[in-house]
């Protein structure tokens, strides 16, 4: 083969490699942008759901609506990612896309829980990752499960933050049962989904914190037959103790984003 032809072949290889590297960098940035929007949506949901309101149901619906509106900002980013992930390119660049996708699912599932009190389905997440032209890309089942696993940490914060509020103890018990069921159901998938086992340890820790906080309330209330005001004071102190460590961790993580 003439040397000119060999050079042309390697020139083509260089162009392919450069194109792949450029695409990788664009996808990393897009994924980080989605992660940033999703984290802001989660903060928004936590802030709104703790506002004083005489109608807890209306407050939850408003929080979910505003959270979804915030998440909608990421749709333009997903639309730009679509042509970058055609065919086998999705799996080639899956590691760059996955972090932002999981964070998006975590935020979306939190808004869905506040709105419906249930776990969001795979079909509902795939529908959220679509526009009039169809899906941005096919949602991997592993990312769906890993995103839902992250939800349990947000539910732990939600439950403990609500303990000091009126009817918060009932809500905490509901969340505790929900997280316990999630942990049991996710356990079935740990042999098949990479990293899910690690996230199950985090879910177990979140469940323990909810149970410990709820236990404090029940024991103190039954031992001393406390008035509601005194019980709420104990609950507030217990809530602060259980959430301080996580708040500090969140502050560090979000400052690094």
Rg on CA atoms, Å: 22 Å
Number of helices: 10
Q: Number of DSSP strands?
A: 2
Mean pLDDT: 86
Low confidence ranges: 250-257
Q: How much helicity do the residues have?
A: over 70%
Please characterize this protein's 3D structure:
The structure is a single chain. With 257 residues, the protein is mainly α. It has helices at 3-49, 56-71, 75-81, 89-92, 94-116, 122-128, 141-162, 168-186, 196-224, 228-256; strands spanning 130-131, 134-135. Strands 1-2 form a two-stranded antiparallel sheet. A hairpin with a 2-residue loop joins strand 1 (130-131) and strand 2 (134-135). Helix 1 packs parallel to helix 5, helix 5 (94-116) packs across helix 7 (141-162) and helix 7 (141-162) packs across helix 10. The longest helix has 47 residues, at 3-49. The protein is elongated and about 95 Å long. Keywords: Cytoplasm, Nucleus. This is Translin. It is found in: Cytoplasm; Nucleus.
Q: What does this entry show, briefly?
A:
Helices cover 79% and strands 2% of the residues. With 257 residues, the protein is mainly α. The model is unreliable at 250-257 (pLDDT under 50).
């Amino acid at each position: 083969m003439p040397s000119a032809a060999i050079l042309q072949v390697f020139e083509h290889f260089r162009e392919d490699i450069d194109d792949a590297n450029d695409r990788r960098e664009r996808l990393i940035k897009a994924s980080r942008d989605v992660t940033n929007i999703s984290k802001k949506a989660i903060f928004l949901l936590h802030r709104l759901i703790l506002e004083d309101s005489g109608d807890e149901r209306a407050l939850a619906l408003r929080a979910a609506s505003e959270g979804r509106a915030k998440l909608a900002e990421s749709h333009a980013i997903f639309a730009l990612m679509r042509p970058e992930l055609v065919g086998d390119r999705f799996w080639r660049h899956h590691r760059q896309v996955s972090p932002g996708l999981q964070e998006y699912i975590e935020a979306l599932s939190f808004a869905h829980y506040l709105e419906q009190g249930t776990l969001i389905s795979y079909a509902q997440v795939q529908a959220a990752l679509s526009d009039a032209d169809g899906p941005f890309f096919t949602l991997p089942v592993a990312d769906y499960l890993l995103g839902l696993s992250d939800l349990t940490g947000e539910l732990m914060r939600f439950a403990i933050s609500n303990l000091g509020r009126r009817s918060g103890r009932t809500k905490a018990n509901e969340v505790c049962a929900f997280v316990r069921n999630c942990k049991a159901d996710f356990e079935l998938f740990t042999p098949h989904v990479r990293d899910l086992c690690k996230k199950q340890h985090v879910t177990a820790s979140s469940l323990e914190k909810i149970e410990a906080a709820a236990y404090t309330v029940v024991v103190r209330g039954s031992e001393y037959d406390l008035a509601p005001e005194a019980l709420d004071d104990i609950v507030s102190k217990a809530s602060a103790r259980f959430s301080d460590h996580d708040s500090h961790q969140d502050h560090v993580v979000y400052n690094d984003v």
